[in-house]
């Protein structure tokens, strides 16, 4: 708690002190009495406000914050309700007369004060307001700031109630078509044994980190000497790896992440196992990144959660190192038969070489950023597209900021 006099309190206290000193100097008991009364009023008011402190350890008030929806996509509005309750009479007395203010990150409040509605009832107060999410990330909300003054407004106490909440903001995504007849051609589907799903359509595959141990086929694992798990995925639905090359300047970071997330969700909704690779942290482990499946509850949310903490590389060398690490991960986890969908920038020689090897075992598709405002941006992007196409990739250029469906349909059209 922070207790301090208000401007009125300072004025009243100073006036009382002056009157006491004048009364003593002039020998006037009346002036001394008046000045003493003013000082007593200020002191008593401060004591009362301190006793009614809302955040005191003596039967503290309960605070519960409800954020809906959470997580949320960037650009969407979030409703917040803060419930302050007390079940004992002293707590109800402390609730009366409180003023409330909520704290929020700039990415939620746009730097402006939050405008809230306060609904009071016996033993409880509900503070409700809305915030507009501006950018992808994890942003703090709260704690609640409460202010109390006495009847005369001489002292004011300020304290905080409750803990901080966190609002998780996913990137903006748009629905994209997933024409599997283009991504997986008819000869591929025949080779993979594509057919209608069946309850008996079960096969075995190598164990990947994150797989449920209950799906391990122990008899076959013992025979082969390595873990195998049952897979009831529909045959012909190739696994998809979305490879991210984040711009190191950060200018087109959100557009790049939004495009990659939209592509990943489109393939996930089409029934493909999907994973997101950016070559950083846990995503670059040698044990591989587990695929997400629509048959698992929360697969979409788990995929979007992986985009929340993505950060731009600090230099072009770091950006290339990340991409090379992601390409090596594809090779180390036996990406044969996969579809690799890349959202890339203009590449250096090392990254081009790494991605060329990916096309030896996987089917590669790539959208390459072409920034017309950057010197040589279009030329470098064109050179990257040509290099990828020579290596067996399907690739096209895209200008950052253009509609995401246009980029996606242009990529699919490159196969015709």
Query: What is the H-and-E element order?
Result: EHHEEEHEHEEEEEHHEHEEHEHHEHEHEH
Main sheet: strands, sense, barrel = 6 strands, mixed
The appropriate CATH architecture of the largest domain is 3-Layer(aba) Sandwich
CATH topology value of the largest domain:
Rossmann fold
What does this structure look like?
The chain is an alpha/beta fold and 416 residues long. The chain folds into four domains: 2-51; 62-170, Immunoglobulin-like, CATH 2.60.40.10; 180-197 and 235-413, Rossmann fold, CATH 3.40.50; 200-233, no CATH class. The chain has 13 helices and 17 strands. The protein has helices at 7-26, 29-51, 89-95, 106-109, 180-183, 186-192, 218-224, 253-269, 299-308, 316-332, 349-361, 377-390, 404-413, and strands at residues 2-5, 62-68, 72-73, 77-85, 99-104, 117-121, 124-132, 137-149, 155-161, 165-170, 203-206, 228-231, 240-244, 274-277, 339-344, 363-369, 394-398. Strands 1, 3, 5, 8, 9 and 10 form a six-stranded mixed beta sheet that branches. Strand 16 (363-369), helix 12 (377-390) and strand 17 (394-398) form a beta-alpha-beta unit. Helix 8 runs antiparallel to helix 9. The radius of gyration is 32 Å and the shape is elongated. It starts with a strand and ends with a helix. The model is unreliable at 189-202 and 282-287 (pLDDT under 50).
């Amino acid at each position: 708690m922070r207790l301090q006099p208000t401007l009125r309190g300072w004025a009243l206290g100073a006036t009382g002190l002056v009157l006491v000193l004048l009364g003593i100097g002039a020998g006037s008991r009346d002036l001394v009495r008046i000045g003493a009364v003013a000082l007593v009023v200020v002191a008593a008011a401060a004591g009362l406000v301190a006793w009614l402190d809302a955040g005191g350890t003596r039967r503290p008030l309960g605070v519960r914050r409800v954020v809906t929806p959470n997580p949320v996509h960037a650009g969407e509005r979030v409703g917040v309700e803060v419930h302050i309750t007390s079940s004992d009479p002293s707590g109800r007395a402390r609730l009366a007369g409180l003023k409330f203010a909520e704290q929020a990150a700039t990415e939620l409040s746009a730097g402006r004060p939050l405008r809230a509605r306060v609904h009071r009832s016996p033993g409880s107060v509900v503070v409700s307001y809305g915030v507009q999410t501006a950018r992808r990330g994890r942003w703090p909300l709260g704690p609640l700031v409460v202010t109390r003054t006495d009847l005369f407004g001489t002292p004011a106490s300020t304290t905080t109630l409750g803990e901080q909440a966190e609002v998780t903001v996913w990137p903006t995504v748009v629905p994209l078509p997933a024409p599997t007849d283009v991504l997986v051609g008819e000869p591929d589907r025949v080779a993979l044994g594509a057919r209608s799903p069946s309850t008996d359509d079960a096969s075995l595959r190598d164990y990947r980190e994150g797989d449920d141990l209950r799906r391990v086929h122990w008899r076959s694992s013992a025979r082969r000497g390595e873990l195998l798990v049952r897979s009831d995925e529909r045959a012909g639905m190739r696994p998809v790896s979305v490879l991210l090359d984040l711009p190191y300047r950060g200018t087109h970071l959100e557009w790049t992440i939004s495009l990659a997330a939209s592509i990943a969700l489109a393939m996930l909704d089409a029934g493909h196992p999907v994973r997101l690779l950016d070559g950083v942290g846990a995503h670059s482990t040698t044990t591989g990144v587990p695929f997400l499946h629509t048959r698992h509850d929360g697969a979409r949310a788990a995929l979007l959660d992986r985009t929340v903490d993505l950060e731009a590389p600090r230099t072009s060398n770091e950006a290339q190192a990340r991409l090379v690490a992601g390409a090596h991960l594809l090779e180390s986890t036996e990406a044969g038969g996969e579809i690799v969908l890349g959202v890339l920038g203009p590449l250096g020689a090392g990254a081009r070489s790494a991605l060329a090897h990916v096309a030896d075992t996987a089917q590669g598709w790539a959208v390459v950023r072409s920034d017309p405002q950057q010197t040589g941006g279009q030329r470098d992007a064109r050179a990257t597209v040509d290099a990828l196409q020579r290596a067996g990739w399907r690739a096209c250029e895209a200008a950052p900021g253009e509609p995401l469906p246009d980029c996606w349909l242009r990529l699919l059209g490159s196969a015709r």
